[in-house]
Amino acid sequence: MAIPFLHLHIFSKSLEQDIYQGLKNTYEKLSVQENKEIAHFFNKCEELISVNEGEPDSLVVFDDCVNERQQCIIKDYFSRGRHKNISCV
Question: Mean pLDDT throughout 56-76?
Answer without folding.
Answer: 86
